[in-house]
Design brief:
Among the domains are: about 50-125 and about 180-225, no CATH class; about 250-365, no CATH class. The protein contains 19 helices and no strands. The protein has about 375 residues and is an all-alpha fold. The longest helix has 26 residues, at about 55-80.
């Protein structure tokens, strides 16, 4: 554990800019052909980077679903121009998701990491089902909220509704509400806009130079209407803010985890550790186990609390067998609060700084 928690361990965690599979092979080896680097990365994978089919499928569903929903919005906005509408009518089915699948380099690593986190949360919610031992009844977490506080009741209902949208099943291109943070929505929006603009320009029905301003205007209108507060991450943050000092109640985090309210747990952790709840969720879903342990210890988690957390993370961490959990629990016993606080303090640094520092450490040996 002490080696894992050293000052020179990777700091950027699951949102790292070089977390793509070929990054470890490509670091310092720009002369290696990209295709060969990808082959090397997948034939000789980094054991610290867990991959499994269920998480990949959930990530693709979130990414493809959000992209398709944005494409539908763009198509509706472009119907005002007959030439563009006629060009797109030749392609009645979604084209943005197939375009991204054919050209995955259009996708940035931070957006992919965010989608992977969304997919991981969905996977845990779906595989666990209802709360522990109390299906359909009043949950322990709900009992901690004042029954006569309608604002808290509405905030909890909004969180549950938003989580429910993430649990809907469908194909990769089945539309999903793009309840993304604004910067990720913008990135996906411009990817969709470029895909549609390229198709229209090739149609020959309108001057190519006239396409971009029209598509840009439609995208800007869609961007102005975007409400990032509709997503479950924002809903969990809103609930924690409304709780105020009550969010610091020691039993609330245990109740949230026991009730499988993973985003509420992440929001509570973020409040106490002074980090964004999305980053806390990232650490739980795909972060190094050393970071998960540090997060739990910094929150005051006991040995039993850590074992409970590891059991809850099993759907997105298939390597957590019974024997692996025993090993992680033994290492957790050696982790001090001071060591955990040092790791959490480093993780609070800006992501761009952590990414570049980690990159320099990797290529510098």
């Amino acid at each position: 554990m002490l080696a894992d928690m050293s000052a020179f361990s990777p700091l950027i965690g699951p949102t790292q800019a070089d977390s793509w599979p070929m990054a470890r092979v490509m670091a310092g080896m720009s002369a290696v052909p990209v295709g060969h680097a990808i082959d090397l990365a997948f034939f000789f994978p980094d054991e610290d980077q867990e991959r499994h089919d269920a998480l990949v499928a959930e990530t693709r569903r979130h990414l493809g679903g959000c992209l398709t929903a944005i494409e539908i919005g763009l198509r509706l906005g472009l119907e005002e121009t007959p030439e563009i509408a006629a060009a797109l009518a030749q392609w009645p089915h979604p084209v943005c998701w197939p375009t991204l699948c054919a050209q995955p380099t259009l996708l940035g690593p931070a957006l992919l990491a965010h989608m992977r986190m969304r997919g991981g949360i969905s996977l845990m919610l779906r595989q666990f089902g209802g709360p522990d031992g109390n299906p359909g009844g009043e949950s322990e977490a709900e009992s901690l909220f004042p029954a006569d506080d309608p604002a808290l009741g509405n905030a909890l209902a909004a969180l549950m509704l938003a989580e429910g949208r993430w649990l809907l099943t469908g194909a990769d291109d089945q539309p999903m509400l793009p309840d993304l943070p604004a910067h990720f929505f913008s990135e996906l929006l411009w990817t969709a806009a470029a895909s549609l603009a390229a198709i229209v320009q090739r149609s020959g029905l309108i001057e190519p130079d006239a396409v971009v301003p029209l598509v840009e205007a439609a995208a800007e209108r869609l961007l102005m209407r975007h409400d990032e507060a509709a997503g479950p991450i924002a809903a969990a943050d809103r609930l924690v803010r409304q709780l105020g000092e009550r969010a610091d109640a020691p039993e609330l985090m245990g109740a949230a985890l026991g009730q499988r309210r993973f985003l509420l747990f992440a929001a509570l952790a973020g409040r106490r550790l002074r980090m964004e709840s999305g980053q806390a969720a990232d650490i739980l879903v795909t972060g190094p186990m050393a970071h998960v342990a540090a997060l739990c210890r910094a929150l005051g988690g006991s040995d039993a609390d850590y074992r409970h957390l590891l059991l809850a993370l099993r759907p997105v961490r298939p390597s957590l067998s019974d024997s692996a959990i025993v090993g992680e629990a033994m290492r957790y016993q050696e982790l001090t609060v001071a060591q955990a606080d040092a790791v959490v303090n480093a993780l609070r640094a800006p992501a761009a700084l952590r990414a570049r520092l980690d990159h320099l450490r990797r290529i510098g040996g």
